[in-house]
Amino acid sequence: MILVQFCSSRILPSYNQWNFLLICSRHNDLPWNIRKFLKNQLREFRFDDLRDTQPWARSAWSHTDLRRLKEGMVAAQVSSIITAITRERLVRLFLPLFNIRIISLCLFRNSEHFISVSLFVYRIERAHKEGRLASLIGVEGGHAVGASLAVLRMLYELGARYLTLTHTCNTPWAECSTVDEPGQVARIGGLSNFGKSIILEMNRLGMMVDLSHVSVPTMLVAMRTSKAPVIFSHSSAHALCNSSRNVPDHALRRLAQINGIVMVSFYPHFISCGEKSTLEDVAAHIDHVRKIAGIDHVGIGAGYDGINLTPTGLEDVSKYPELFAELLARGWSEKDIQKLAGLNLIRVFKAVEEERSMPGGKFSGKLVNRIQAPMYEGRVVCLGRRVWNRGWCEDFGMIQGEQPGDKVPDTDKED
Ligand SMILES: [Zn+2]
């Protein structure tokens, strides 16, 4: 059982029965705000409580700090690394690198506040046991990789554990949700062959495929292509708000078949299709995803620090317990709440990591076989210095299993 010690009886009288709750808040754009507000000057930055600190206090985009994470009983926070949508390839690449650096620095400077980087799912569970808050990294926008599997691998090496295939415009190999809007024309019908290669390489690496922001054809092709469960990191139910950013019921049913998860966004434009929404509206979306896909396929996406409007009652990361109280009142059990709060995401993350080590190969067999869970469990993983050479791996206590001369897929080109 996964433990969370960040408990509070302030909101829920029965919370003392919930001591085994893990809240994984998916998709938080805090690094973007740190870069925007502080211009990367982190020396004086204190993350404890930003409610009285300018410019955070007056910004509609600021919803996260350590105190509120603790009040919200958050145990694992996934930070989104957004990339620039630009024709300039270098800009696309250096923004994710900047933001990963911001997260690393922020974690380092606040290590006394129980934050740790979690590169593998077992590290989240271990952080829990240590009473620390786990931090994960996702990259939002396939533009970050351009059309290079090598760059994708590098982002994984730097800690990225999911990639959102598109952002608000197409990549050369995947189409985004705006293609579904009236008057728009699809060019490649969702994913190109190279886009499929990206997904298979993510399977091989053990990286989650994120389908928020993509078009419906892209969702369907990606779900057919991926050998591991996929996620929607911040999308809601299309049946309740017909934004192209939301997931239609037929895709929810397909998602359940492949054991994936939709993590519901709190952005009012995706909840009520307007500028105002409420906690109850969010609960209705969560209920709908549960009704169509099942209790094992719903999670929390929120989107805090990346949205400038929030639902009434869910103004920041401290409010998650209020949402759980609403769902309890709607008849959800404590076990159901645990699944929504984090266990479903943990299950998907584990399945993605298992796929990475699956013998027999989902990619080419040999490639998938090279890294197996027992080889990295308990070892020091030295990121950024992993090399394609067994000797180096052994010398530096790195991930083992790489074979000198192993071939990598020859798919680093657009099609
Ligand atoms: Zn987004």
UniProtKB/TrEMBL annotation:
PROSITE patterns according to UniProt: RENAL_DIPEPTIDASE_2
InterPro entries per record: Metal_Hydrolase, Pept_M19
Membrane topology (UniProt): Lipid-anchor; GPI-anchor
A GO BP annotation: proteolysis
Residues in coiled coil: none
Catalytic activity: an L-aminoacyl-L-amino acid + H2O = 2 an L-alpha-amino acid
UniProt entry keywords in alphabetical sequence: Dipeptidase, Disulfide bond, Glycoprotein, GPI-anchor, Hydrolase, Lipoprotein, Membrane, Metal-binding, Metalloprotease, Protease, Zinc
Signal peptide coordinates: none
GO molecular function terms noted in the UniProt entry: metal ion binding; metallodipeptidase activity
Compartments where located: Membrane
CDD domains membership: rDP_like
A GO CC term assigned to this protein in UniProt: side of membrane
Cofactor requirements of the protein: Zn(2+)
Enzyme Commission number(s) from the entry: 3.4.13.19
Pfam families documented for this protein: Peptidase_M19 (PF01244)
Subunit structure: Homodimer; disulfide-linked.
Family membership: Belongs to the metallo-dependent hydrolases superfamily. Peptidase M19 family.
Protein name: Dipeptidase
Taxonomic lineage: Eukaryota, Metazoa, Ecdysozoa, Arthropoda, Hexapoda
